Amino acid sequence: MTVEVKSLTKIYQVGSSEELAVDSIDFEIGANEFFTLVGPSGCGKSTTLRCIAGLETPTSGQILVDGEDVTQTAPNNRGLAMMFQDIALYPHMNVVENIAYPLKVRGVDKTERQERAREVAELMQIPELLNKYPGELSGGQRQRTAIARTIVYNPSALLMDEPLSDLDAQLKVEIRKEIQRIHERAGVPTIYVTHDQSEALSMSDRIAVMNDGHVMGIGSPDELYESPENTFVAAFIGNPSINLVPATLGDGGGDRVTVDLGGEATERELTEGRPVGTDVEVGIRPERVDVLPDPDAGKLTGTLELIERIGDRRLATVDIDDGEIRALNLSTDTLAEGSTVSVAFDWADVHLFDGESGEALAHPIADVQRNEPTESV
């Protein structure tokens, strides 16, 4: 079973004007694949999911399920199951009746639908709750009930629209594991929508990063993190976010260019041809940056404005002339906020992006012997 989105566009009529929600996007979800749409609020990810489910009619484009065009097919005839952000259990029905309801509307015999409801309740580890009502359940129990209701009729694909957004952090981790377990057992594609990149990175086989109705990048979590297609993907994927610093590009001869950052230059070969003009942005992940107490020892000098503890790690924010740089895992305890410091990193760990378009020009150099940041200067 596969799901394919082809040139999908959705335009809403808002009064006398039009609002473009999704702009000619394409992707395909393979059999048994966990595929996540991620992006900021209003980027078009939920609209895309609703078009796949049949709850919205595309302005143009196609939705294919296992090769069949279902763009104009009614939602109940697509064989898909959708779980919404608002789980909306029926308060006057007990748990078993809530789980079995999708089977009831499909005309399944009462005995069979209650048997199947009990089976999925066992799978979701809530068999003892079958006679309780939603008002008697905790948040996690209601969430498990909603998932059971979603999968009870063996759908061809699972669609989930931000199902964890109303849960606390600990419960999110617990339910995330349940969703992954259900996906593996169901053996069908799962299309998951979230604005939380940590959810996307931890759960997905592949991710589509969206912004303003466009797909900005598609790939595995590792591909999006290590080789982002543009500055939007680079900044959205990763926590803490990537550092982006303006730099100057010069001619290094042949296919190589020189990158000048803070008076220090290095040569790099661009993966996507030569950029227009001389402005680029250097991208460096915070975990590959170090802060040194000697202002003259690193590549850039600045003021150590903030030190934050993140679990067993410490995150430093250094103000420099062109903005700020964040460094994760400080190597010394002697650094103090307000002091003048320098920033060190290895040129091999640098991404390069076109300063105008934001498109990637080069990524970190693979298969090289990296020095520690404090030795690379």
Give short descriptive properties of this protein.
single chain; 377 residues; alpha+beta; 6-stranded antiparallel beta sheet; 8 helices; 22% helix
List the helices and strands and how they pair.
Elements: E1 3-14, E2 17-29, E3 34-38, H1 45-53, E4 60-65, E5 68-69, E6 80-83, H2 95-105, H3 110-123, H4 139-151, E7 157-161, H5 169-186, E8 190-194, H6 197-203, E9 206-211, E10 214-219, H7 221-226, H8 231-236, E11 243-253, E12 256-261, E13 264-269, E14 279-284, E15 289-292, E16 300-310, E17 313-320, E18 323-328, E19 340-345, E20 351-354, E21 360-362
Parallel strand pairs: 3-8, 3-9, 6-7, 7-8
Antiparallel strand pairs: 1-2, 1-4, 4-5, 9-10, 11-12, 11-14, 12-13, 14-20, 15-19, 16-17, 16-19, 17-18, 20-21
Helix pairs in contact: 2-3, 2-4, 3-4, 4-5
Structural features, described:
It is a peripheral membrane protein. One of its GO terms (cellular component) is ATP-binding cassette (ABC) transporter complex, substrate-binding subunit-containing. Residues 3-237 form the ABC transporter domain. Belongs to the ABC transporter superfamily. Carbohydrate uptake transporter-1 (CUT1) (TC 3.A.1.1) family. With 377 residues, the protein is α+β, with helices and mostly antiparallel strands. It has helices spanning 45-53, 95-105, 110-123, 139-151, 169-186, 197-203, 221-226, 231-236, and strands at 3-14, 17-29, 34-38, 60-65, 68-69, 80-83, 157-161, 190-194, 206-211, 214-219, 243-253, 256-261, 264-269, 279-284, 289-292, 300-310, 313-320, 323-328, 340-345, 351-354, 360-362. The chain folds into 2 domains: 3-232, Rossmann fold, CATH 3.40.50; 242-375, OB fold (Dihydrolipoamide Acetyltransferase, E2P). The protein has a 6-stranded mixed β-sheet, sandwiched between helices. The chain has a 6-stranded antiparallel β-sheet with strand order 13-12-11-14-20-21. A hairpin with a 2-residue loop joins strand 11 and strand 12. It starts with a strand and ends in a 15-residue tail after the last strand. The model is unreliable at 373-377 (pLDDT under 50).
